[in-house]
Design goal:
heterodimer, A: mainly alpha, globular, B: alpha+beta, four-stranded antiparallel beta sheet, 4 helices, about 30% helix
Amino acid sequence: MIQLGAVFFGLGLLGRVAWRMGISPIPLYLVGGLAFGVGGLVPLHGIQEFTHIASEIGVVLLLLLLGLEYSASELTTGLKRSWMAGVLDLVLNAAPGAIAALLLGWGPVAALAMAGVTYISSSGIVAKVLGDLGRLGNRETPVVLSVLVFEDLAMAVYLPVLTAVLSGVSFLGGLTSVGISLLAITAVLVVALKYGRFISAIVDSPDHEVFLLKLLGSALLVAGLASQLQVSAAVGAFLLGIAISGSTAENATRLLEPLRDLFAAMFFVVFGLNTDPRSIPPVLGIAVALAAVTTLTKVVTGWWAARRQGIGKMGRMRAGVALVARGEFSIVIAGLAVASGQVDDQLAALATAYVLLMAILGPIAAKYVEPIGEFFQRRRQTA
Amino acid sequence: MIGVNVEITPLPGIGTRQDFMIRAGRRIGVITYRDGRFELILSKASDPDSCAASIPLSPEEANTLAGLLGAPQLVAHLREEHRDITGITTRQLPVTAFANRTLGETALRTRTGASIVAVVRSGNAHPSPGPDFLFDNGDLAVVVGTAEGLDAAAEILHGG
């Protein structure tokens, strides 16, 4: 109990420090986990069982809220409007991770996982940064958000494929489980669009306590069932999130956010705990190179997408840089990969180092892109 | 209401942005968050894509601001409409004597010939209030009538 209390209190302090410095607390949670884990400064014992379950719940809640973030109609209109930018985003940003894994000789399974790690921007960090910097009213912001919406949808297809591949089932078995999950996604989208009210009505309740219990219960039930069907628990929670809509979704988000933050923090710490800090220095060079390349590819994505909407150069730069941050979902993907035991252990170290860099770099770059851009513009004018 | 084209842009996961270009070449508008908060936005003069200010407003504050901008407009609009009819004017009169009493109780039309066409309360206009409309402290009545009728109406509403 004392250890657990100390862990939570420590996380609270870290979170405070992070927001003071204007960065996401995720990298600090990871560092905290690294410090106390295998081969760390002070190994912790005896709380593994709790932290393990807490981190599993953390993943379920992270994905449930990702699903809740956008309504089904936002997803479909987003898909129609931004699929070209979305595809460019997918190709440019998944490729570096996949190529790095192949060059390291980790094999195709790890390449698929690393593609996901470098592809997905952190919608949590991006939305927070845009809000903090007062950029929600900017013209390029809908472009940024629609790219995030597309990534959200891509995750719905990617995660089941990844879990099927990771579970190491035969080609045919893999195909069926991918088929099942694709059918499930289509069904969920159709149901959410046409009958979202009914699903919402099942879980909705005017009483906070009842609502919270029903939500959590249904999320864990769906997640559990999904993992029984060889589709990962995370995917189940994500689909449930999409299916819940309207005011129910807003209330659910408000109610679940603090819980998600609590359990997700545990998830990051556990991921850090299970990663040996001594394994990071050998992959640090690769992580830095990947960070440099994928920063550039995200900027190109945002620049291109914003230009299509007739937005000026500064706005294009802002859109590109806003997308740079990677965070929670990269770690979720790496966590799934490592837990399956199908990939090289170094993948965890690489993903940790990469997310550490990107989660810190993203918000800082977003903050300073404007003054730097203005400086260059002024220089060009005077020259 | 001519020449103002309000652009409505959904912000997935956040809310909606509604804005328009003003003659000075800047965008001005409002972001409505899903949870009901508002933000007043004004674009930079140098870069119309980005915002010079985004000011968070509580629902009450937004209401008040809307009233400040909207109420004089309403009166000006009505005055414009009645300009052709000589002898008829529109005035905005504070209602202080009828808090928690109905519009019917003022018997304004029988006593003065003037009629209340709208009531502005905390920034919201309630058009064509019926006789059972309940007044509150701080209400503003938009009254149409002759000059003498309006003077009499002002007296009644103010404390008659």
